[in-house]
Every structure is written in C-alpha cells, then in structure tokens.
Amino acid sequence: MDTTSTPAQIRTTLNTHDLHRIHAAILDAADTRQLIETTLTILYDALAGDTGTQARQIQPQRYAIPTSQWTAILTAVTNRAQAWGTATAVGLELALNLMPGHYHDPDVPAPNLDLPDYRPTEHRLTITRSAVDVITAAEAHLDRLQTCYGPTSQTYQTALHSWHRGLAGLFSMNSGAHTQVSADGALSLFVHTAGGFVYGLIFHGTDRRCTTDGCHALIDADGAARPACTGAMVLDHDHTPSYPVDAPRPGAWSFHS
After folding, report:
1. pLDDT for 254 beyond 70
2. Which of 29, 64, 100, 225 falls between 20 and 30 A from 148, CA-CA?
3. Can you tell me the mean pLDDT for 64-83?
4. Which has the closest alpha carbon to 146: 163, 165, 133, 159?
C-alpha cells in the first residue's frame, strides 16, 4: 500500500492483497447489509494501515484512492447487489456517502474484480391501464413535435431521447426483477421497483415566453399573457411567443426520486 498525504486528504493506492480481500468479500456476501459492511471494513482497514485507527472511526472524506480502483470497487459492489434488487440504492449510498474520495492516477491500472451475472433470470414489468395511456400520449406528443419542428430539430431530438432513455430504464434490473408503473399526470409516470426504489419519469414542458427585450411575460395556450413571476414586467404590446400558441409544447423527461 503506497500512501501519500496532503493537509486535506490522505491518498492511498490499494495493493493486490487489499483488492483480493475486497473481491472475496463481495463474492461471499449473503445479503446487502453484509455486502456493504464487509467491503467497507476491509477497504478502510487497508486505508488505516498501521495507524491504529479502526475502520469505523475513519471519515470517508479524508481519504482517497485512485479513480481506477474506486470505480472497479463501486461497480463490483453494485453488480453484486443485483442479486437482491438493491443495486441502485447501494450504488447511490456508496458513491455519495460511504466510499472514500478518488483521484486520477494514470499509472494505476483498473483491477480485475469480475463477478458472475447475479441478475434474476426474468424481469416482470407491471403497467397500469392509466400508465399505458400515458405512454400512448407521450408517443403521440413526440409525433406532433416531429411534425411541427422537424425530425432533426433540437426540440424534437431532446424530447425523443429523454423519453426513450426513461423507457429503457424501466427494464433495468438494478432495482429488482419486478417493476410497477403507474400514471403520474398526462405525460408522466410513477415507478415503484421491487428493491424499494421509487421515482417519477416526469415531463417538464418549456414555458412559452415573450421574446421581446424587456418583456417578461408567459403566454398561455389561448394567447393570454401573464407575468413570469411576481413583479415581472409585462409590456403592453403584441407579444412574440417563443413557440407558436397552436404548437405542441417542447420539453423533456427526467428522473426524480
């Protein structure tokens, strides 16, 4: 283990023995709790070295390992958690709260932490009737955007890719082998996964604004103008909308947990 320190952070390169122990702990884990606890205990024992500090006493933000090793460990733990449908939750918790920091070191190769495929053999997707209606409406909205703005327009391409990326996410096994989908508005979906992870696939429409300098009006579908926010200046003139009042509303879909 090669360690260098800065006033703010202790940088450590894990050696082959450390990585082998971490790999074995990931393979041998019997459930999500054991997976996280044993992996982090071995990792932080390695970072503590001979200082006498216990793994549970270590503050993650004070330590960093090479990005190649950090990514390999996170990926291996997340892939192992697919066996219990907790990969998404585990990945977020590790990356945001439990793992040490990381730093780029081109001389440290990515370790081989290969695992078998722990995903369930089947994925069951349950979609309510109202959610089917949302999917149908979203596809119809995309057709209208394509007709109005053109198939190569940024408006259409942004909406298309964000929607299809969201649909593809429904088939991910990172949160278990059963996903339930229901409606959450005219163009939005609510998703509940077997692993307990819930999120919305929400359509965010672009406001129709007056494009005249100095005028801060929002323009409704009937052409009526109103202030964009309390106290905003709305000029007394013929407003020029950022997109036509009879055109489909531009926008994009995004994930919200």
Report:
1. yes
2. 225
3. 96
4. 159
Q: Are residues 152 and 247 in the same domain?
A: yes
Does 134 lie in the same domain as 248?
yes
pLDDT digits (tens, 9 = 90+) for 142-198: 999 999 999 999 999 999 999 999 999 998 888 888 999 999 999 999 999 988 889
Q: How far apart are CA 73 and CA 61, in angstroms?
A: 17
Q: At 172, list the tokens.
A: 């991910």
> Residue 57's pLDDT is what?
63
Whole-prediction pTM: 0.74
Domain that holds residue 199: 124-206+242-256
* 162 within 8 A of 156, measured Cβ to Cβ: no
Start-end of H helices in the chain: 16-28, 32-48, 67-80, 87-93, 129-149, 154-169
Inter-residue contact 200 to 147 (CB < 8 Å): no
136 and 178 both lie in a single domain: yes
Among 57, 74, 103, identify where a domain stops: 103
